[in-house]
Design brief:
Layout: H1 4-11, H2 15-23, H3 30-43, E1 61-65, H4 74-90, E2 94-98, H5 103-112, E3 118-121, H6 131-136, E4 141-144, E5 155-158, H7 160-173, E6 178-183, H8 186-190, H9 194-209, E7 213-218, H10 223-236, E8 242-245, H11 251-260, E9 270-275, H12 277-282, E10 288-291, H13 294-309, E11 317-320, E12 324-325
Helix pairs in contact: 1-2, 1-3, 2-3, 4-13, 7-9, 10-11
């Protein structure tokens, strides 16, 4: 059975362009229309033969699956959603946002109703229960995140393990010997959220490699929790001079708490973080950080998904290289 993706590939255009050429819903150039019509004739394509036999056989809608679970940081989630929507519009696609915690049932409901052509899935867990269904669906998907077993899936993400390594290496290079990771809220680790687990792996491995004394501390995303954790860190690690923060919501209150406890940043304590660039740069003490490339990740996910829709082979794994920007929150260990 010839599909619209076959026609698109043969004509060198996108499936949505084939749809517009056949339905007349949107204007396209005469040259493009002729190429599409020639491909239809040569391949013997019949629109009504499609399994989703609407004009053009596609809805031109992508699903963005972001369950709004406890412990996630909404401003960062919003950045990802905006980047996906913006990229999708460049391909003349709309985005259906799915925020409920429905797991497999929600994915199956959307797929069975033919509401969307493909899915982008976020908040990926190491052992994600949605994976068997995603592998079996007749619609392509892209995950922003890497489960423990990614075979048969298309995944894209920042290399969070390498990001944590960069943060630790920066502190080690400045002479800091006792460090701590202030991590995501506890429930994020309980769920086995993949990116958070990989930050811990990278932090621990880099600290061990550099012979640093280190501890990992999950932290609720509130100023009160940041204050309590600052007190605990100084009580349990009195020689602490370096902190890596992977929890955007507590960056500013954590710096405030340390300074209220008598530690200057960076004179007494150096801080690095994994967070959006604009967050790190806007703080009272601009923080040395590895950026979260939400715009690039959203664009990559949409690009991979649209290529899959046209039948183009894409890499299963795309890891973005992290980059660290030095700012005012880090200094040599013996800084005055």
């Amino acid at each position: 059975m010839v599909k619209i993706t076959d026609v698109a590939r043969h004509a060198g255009v996108s499936p949505s362009t084939v749809s517009y050429a056949l339905s007349g819903k949107r204007p396209i150039s005469e040259e493009t229309r002729r190429r599409v019509e020639a491909a239809v004739r040569e391949l013997g394509y019949r629109p009504h033969a499609s399994a989703r036999a609407l004009a053009g056989s596609r809805s031109n809608v992508l699903a963005l699956v972001i369950p709004l679970r406890t412990g996630i940081h909404l401003p960062v989630v919003t950045q990802f959603a905006v980047s996906v929507v913006t990229a999708a519009r460049r391909y003349d696609h709309d985005v259906l946002l799915l925020t409920q915690e429905e797991g497999e049932d929600g994915l199956r409901r959307v797929a069975d109703a033919a509401l969307v052509d493909a899915l982008i899935v976020m908040d990926v867990q190491l052992h994600d229960p949605r994976l068997p269904l995603l592998r079996a669906l007749d619609r392509p998907s892209v995950l922003i995140g890497f489960p423990r077993e990614p075979a048969g899936l298309t995944c894209v993400d920042l290399d969070f393990r390498a990001a944590a390594v960069l943060c630790v290496e920066r502190l080690a290079g400045l002479g800091h010997r006792v460090v701590a990771l202030v991590g995501s809220p506890p429930e994020v680790y309980v769920r086995g959220t993949a990116f958070a687990q990989r930050v811990v792996q990278g932090f621990t491995a880099a600290a061990d490699r550099n012979a640093l004394a280190s501890r990992v501390h999950p932290c609720e995303a509130t100023p009160a929790a940041a204050r309590r954790l600052a007190e605990r860190l100084l009580r349990e690690q009195p020689a602490l001079t370096g902190v890596v923060v992977h929890n955007e919501a507590v960056l500013e209150p954590l710096i405030d708490a340390f300074e209220q406890l008598g530690l200057r940043v960076p004179g007494d304590l150096s801080i690095t973080a994994i967070c959006p660039d604009e967050t790190a740069a806007a703080l009272r003490v601009p923080v040395t950080s590895v950026a979260l490339p939400s715009a690039e990740l959203g664009e990559r996910a949409v690009d991979l998904l649209l290529r899959k829709l046209t039948g183009t082979e894409v890499p299963e794994a795309t890891l973005l290289t992290p980059h660290l920007t030095n700012r005012a929150s880090t200094a040599p260990r013996d800084a005055p």
